[in-house]
Amino acid sequence: MKRFLFLGLMLVGLSSIAPAAEKAPQCFELRIYYAAEGKLDALNSRFRDHTIALFTRHGMTNVAYWMPVENPQRRFVYLLSYPDLAAREASWKAFQADPEWIAAKAASETSGTLVEKVESRFLTLTDFSPDMKVDEAGAPHIFEMRTYTATPGNLPHLLDRFRRHTLALFSKHGMKHFAYFTPLPGQPGAEDTLVYFIYHASPEAREASFAAFVADPDWIKVKADSETAAGGSLTIQDGVKSELLKAADFSPVK
Fold first, then answer.
1. Of 93, 169, 183, 227, which sits with the fewest C-beta atoms within 10 Å of its C-beta?
2. DSSP 8-state assignment for residue 163
3. CA-to-CA distance for 247 and 254, rounded, in angstroms?
4. What phi and psi, each to the nearest 5 degrees, are found at residue 212?
5. Cα-based torsion angle of the residue sequence 191, 28, 116, 114 in order, rounded to the nearest 10 degrees
C-alpha cells in the first residue's frame, strides 16, 4: 500500500510541475537595428517611452537592451523571449496593429524614419546556459556578445567543449555568464552557430581575463585534445566575433 501511495504522490507531483515546464520560454529573438544618421537617441527614446511597454502588452518578454561601446554603425541590440515561434508571430501581429504603436511610430518619424535596417535571429538556450541574471547588478560591468561559427559537423563538439570545460575556465578567470544560445532548429546557422553573452567588470578586466584564459595550461590542453578528436579546429577561420555592449538605461538587465 505504501508503495502505491508513494507512486501516486510522485505522479501528482509530476503533473503539478509539468505546466510550469511547458510555459518556459522556448524561443528567443535577437534583434539588431541600424539607426538612421542622427536618429539613435530618438530610437532609444521611442523604446523607453513606448515600445517596451507595448511589447509587454502583447505578450513579449523584454530580456535586455544594449548598444555597442564602439558604435559607428549606430546599432541597437536587444533580446526578447516568447513561448514559441507561433506566439512570436501572434504577438508581433498584434503589436504592429496596435493604434498606440501606430501613433507613437508616426509621431517619432515626422522628420524621417528612425531605422535603416533590421537583423533578426531566432535562438534557443543551450542545455548548459545559466539563469539569465547579473550578479551584483549595481556594480559596474560591461557585456560581451560573442558569436562562433563551427567547422562543418563540429558544432556538437564545440558545445561539448563549452559544457565540460570552457564555462568553468571562464569562471576561473573572472568572467561572468549571462546566456548561451544556438539558433532554433531549421533557422539559419542552426548547424554551426553559437551565440553567447558574458560580462566583465570593465573592458580592462575583460582583456586581463582573456589573457589569463588563453594562457591557462588547462585550456591549452582542452583545446588541443578537442581539436585532435575533431580532426582540426572547431571554428572556421575568423569564425569568432566579439562585440562589447553597454546596457540601455531602460533595459531590464543592467
1. 93
2. I
3. 5
4. -70, -40
5. -170
State pLDDT tens for residues 131-159.
Answer: 888 876 667 799 999 999 999 999 999 99
User: Whole-model pTM?
Assistant: 0.88
pLDDT > 70: percent of the chain: 89
Q: 143 near 199, Cβ under 8 Å?
A: yes
Pairing of strands 75-82, 61-68: antiparallel
Number of H helices, E strands in the chain: 9, 8
Backbone φ, ψ for residue 92 (5° rounding): -65, -35
Amino acid occupying residue 102: I
Element (H, E) at 84: none
Cell of 68: 555597442
> What cell does 38 get?
542622427
CA distance linking residue 160 with residue 83, whole number of Å: 26
Cβ–Cβ < 8 Å for 210, 166: no
Whether the Cβ atoms of residue 240 and residue 162 lie closer than 8 Å to each other:
no
The hierarchical CATH code for the domain 24-124 is: 3.30.70.100
Decide if 144 contacts 206 (C-beta within 8 A): yes
Paired sense of beta strands 193-200 and 75-82, if any: unpaired
CATH level 3 topology of 126-247: Alpha-Beta Plaits (3.30.70)
Task: Map out the domains of the chain as residue ranges.
Answer: 24-124, 126-247
**Size of the chain, expressed as the number of residues it contains:** 254
Q: By the 8 A CB rule, do 153 and 170 touch?
A: no
Return the C-alpha cell found at 82.
Answer: 516568447
